[in-house]
């Protein structure tokens, strides 16, 4: 589905966007209830359809309308669900945390936007002897951070930037930008608090065009959890809009050939079930029959270098 619209790009603020995909809101509600046991119905009241729009200037793709974005209660539910199953919601020991340390030196003044439970802030203290500053909107995790002696504020970067102009050597934001719909003000404010020549380090899920390339119905890659779909090409186009240049791009470990084939088949068959075990008997038979063909295509793409990792981290330098 492709159609013009009057929706403006969240990055440029003035470029008209094109509709590329359409989701039935009920379909999304069912996915969250079935796969995560979370009721998200309240985010879709009077919103029967969710569209994916594409900014024609940058290629940025985003879900619309923005009213479907998650709230504090939603993230609290995700956090409690993670704790129930022993995984938590906030990540530890991730590739982007480790990679970013290569660009941070002792003595740097560092800001983390969306610091969660302070995992990265504690990593900076342990490995770089840096007392960093964090911004977070989850009251539960803010209290936890403050109780552990971390310098964390309940503020949007747009508000924080008003009094912190050119204050930091490095600004980091890990797995946050995909949740944000006000991209232009977010990046402008992040650059505002950054010193000239400072680094802005961003990591997000890599969507080419979806999670794991093919997983269109990845539950947590849909609203109200995620609002934007990022990849390397979009980040490369940001240098046309903002006073930045790319220093380095890093992917997490690439998906396996078998994994790529699995998600490819799900897309071919329009399967929404989270795992193979949850699929219907007919879906399983179709998947088994299609497996050799999907493996063939996955091997071909692997050989051509088209299978990248599920996460991407980009280092920008402020001009």
In short:
With 319 residues, the protein is of the alpha/beta class.
Describe this structure in words.
- It is a single chain.
- Helices cover 34% and strands 23% of the residues.
- It contains 10 helices and 12 strands.
- It is globular, with a radius of gyration of 20 Å.
- With 319 residues, the chain is α/β, with parallel strands linked by helices.
- Helix 5 links the parallel strand 6 and strand 7.
- The strands form 2 sheets. The protein has a 7-stranded mixed sheet with strand order 7-6-5-8-9-12-11, with helices on both faces. Strands 1-2-3-4-10 form a 5-stranded antiparallel sheet.
- Helix 9 crosses helix 10.
Topology:
Blueprint: E1 3-8, E2 16-24, H1 25-36, E3 49-55, E4 61-64, H2 72-84, H3 95-101, E5 110-113, H4 119-128, E6 133-135, H5 139-147, E7 151-153, H6 157-160, E8 168-174, H7 183-192, E9 194-205, E10 228-229, H8 232-238, E11 244-251, H9 257-269, H10 281-303, E12 311-318
Parallel strand pairs: 5-6, 5-8, 6-7, 8-9
Antiparallel strand pairs: 1-2, 2-3, 3-4, 4-10, 9-12, 11-12
Helix pairs in contact: 9-10
Average predicted local confidence, pLDDT: 94
Count of separate DSSP helical elements: 10
Strand order of the largest sheet: 7-6-5-8-9-12-11
Please tell me what the overall shape is: globular
> What share of residues are in beta strands?
15-25%
What can be said about the biggest beta sheet? 7 strands, mixed
Radius of gyration: 20 Å
- DSSP E strands, number: 12
State the low-pLDDT regions, or none.
none
What structural class do you assign from the helix and strand content? alpha/beta
String of helices and strands: EEHEEHHEHEHEHEHEEHEHHE
* Helix fraction by DSSP (H/I, runs of at least 4): 25-40%
End-to-end Cα distance: 39 Å
């Amino acid at each position: 589905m492709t159609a013009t619209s009057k929706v403006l790009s969240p990055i440029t603020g003035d470029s008209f966007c094109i509709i590329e995909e359409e989701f039935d809101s009920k379909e999304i509600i069912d996915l969250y209830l079935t796969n995560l046991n979370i009721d998200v119905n309240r985010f879709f009241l009077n919103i029967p359809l969710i569209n994916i729009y594409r900014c024609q200037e940058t290629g940025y793709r985003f879900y619309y309308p923005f009213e479907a974005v998650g709230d504090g209660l939603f993230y609290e539910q995700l956090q409690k669900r993670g704790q129930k199953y022993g995984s938590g919601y906030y990540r530890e020991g991730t590739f982007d945390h480790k990679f970013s340390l290569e660009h941070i030196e002792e003595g740097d003044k560092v800001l983390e936007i969306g610091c969660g439970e302070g995992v990265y802030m504690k990593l900076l203290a342990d490995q770089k002897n840096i007392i960093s500053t964090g911004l977070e909107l989850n009251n539960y995790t803010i209290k936890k951070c403050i109780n552990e002696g971390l310098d964390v504020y309940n503020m949007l970067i747009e508000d924080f930037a008003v009094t912190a102009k050119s204050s930091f050597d490095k600004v980091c934001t890990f797995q946050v930008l995909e949740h944000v719909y006000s991209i232009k003000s977010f990046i402008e404010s992040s650059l505002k608090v950054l010193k000239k020549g400072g680094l802005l380090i961003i990591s997000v899920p890599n969507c080419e065009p979806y999670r794991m390339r093919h997983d269109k119905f990845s539950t947590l890659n849909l609203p109200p959890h995620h609002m934007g779909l990022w990849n390397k090409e979009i980040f490369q186009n940001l240098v046309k809009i903002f006073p930045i240049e790319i220093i380095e791009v890093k992917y997490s470990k690439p998906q396996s050939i078998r994994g790529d084939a699995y998600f490819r088949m799900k897309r071919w068959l329009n399967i929404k079930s989270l795992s193979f075990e949850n699929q219907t008997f007919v879906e399983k038979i179709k998947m088994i029959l299609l497996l050799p063909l999907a493996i063939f295509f996955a091997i071909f793409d692997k050989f051509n270098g088209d299978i990248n990792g599920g996460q991407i981290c980009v280092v920008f330098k402020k001009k």
